Amino acid sequence: MFKCLNIKMNKGFTLVEMLITALVFSIIVGVATGLFISAIRLQRYNLTYQRLLDQTSYVMEYTARAIRMAKKDIGGCVPDGTNYYPDIGNNIRFVTYHDECWKFFLEEITNPQDPTDKFNRLVMNKYGTDYYLTSDDFDVENFNVYVYGDISGEQPKVTIFMGIKGRGSGYQPKIQIQTTVSQRNLNK
Predict the structure, then answer these.
(1) How far is residue 167's CA from residue 145's CA, in Å, rounded to a whole number?
(2) Distances (CA, A) of 23 to 13, 19, 41, 52, 75
(3) CA-based nearest residue to 96, from 128, 125, 79, 73
(4) Which of 132, 131, 158, 179 is nearest to 69 (CA)?
(5) How far apart are CA 92 and CA 105, in angstroms?
(6) Which among 177, 83, 185 is positioned nearest to 138, based on CA atoms?
(7) Cα–Cα dist 39/33, whole Å
(8) Mind spelling out the 3-state secondary structure of the chain?
(9) What was the pLDDT predicted at 79?
(10) For the chain, how big is the Rg over CA atoms in Å?
(11) Residue 28 burial (CB < 10 Å; 0-12/13-18/19+)?
């Protein structure tokens, strides 16, 4: 009357099922880890880019403001009758309204911990003392200055071009920026 049903009770996993589960889990963990690492790298790049942009903007504004307030020199800082003296295109000298000779230029720095690590920083010489305008986290690749119309009676214009990039391992941000300024007061 009663038939005995032969029902096989499955109480575990087979080896193939365990291997497939481990493989799927490994793929999911690998993809999640890769996405997390990519997000961290992107965040680091964006923070470095923001710092680079802030510093570049500050340096360009400071340099442009100082150059805009130059006056004709009669004391020997620059050739007589001119406002600016660009030495070889990558630095500039001028006299301020306070009769001080200022100079902006690039200086190559060697890392004391690694003598093969060399980079450039923008320097301002003011009152005979050098002041770094860029941090050692960045390498100023280019700082070029071009002066136009610096002759008697004309409004001189100075074009500043700067290329700067982050230093460190991995892909680093890079910015190239240019501005042109003119002298504020020609009568002085």
Answers:
(1) 24
(2) 15, 6, 27, 43, 79
(3) 73
(4) 158
(5) 7
(6) 177
(7) 10
(8) CCCCCCCCCCCCCCHHHHHHHHHHHHHHHHHHHHHHHHHHHHHHHHHHHHHHHHHHHHHHHHHHHHHHCCECCCCCCCCCCCCEEEECCCEEEEECCCCCEEEEEEEEEECCCCCCCEEEEEEEEECCEEEECCCCCEEEEEEEEEEECCCCCCCCEEEEEEEEEECCCCCCCEEEEEEEEECCCCCC
(9) 75
(10) 31
(11) exposed
The residues near 21 (Cβ < 8 Å, ≥ 6 apart) are 13
Contact yes or no for 104/124 (Cβ under 8 A):
yes
- 3-17, 86-100, 110-124: which is most confident: 110-124
Domain ranges of the chain: 39-182
Q: What is the mean pLDDT of residues 89-115?
A: 86
Q: What's this model's pTM, rounded to 2 decimal places?
A: 0.75
CA distance 60 to 44: 24
List pLDDT tens digits, range 43-61. Answer: 989 999 999 999 999 999 9
Q: Are 106 and 89 in contact (CB under 8 A)?
A: no
Cβ–Cβ < 8 Å for 48, 54:
no
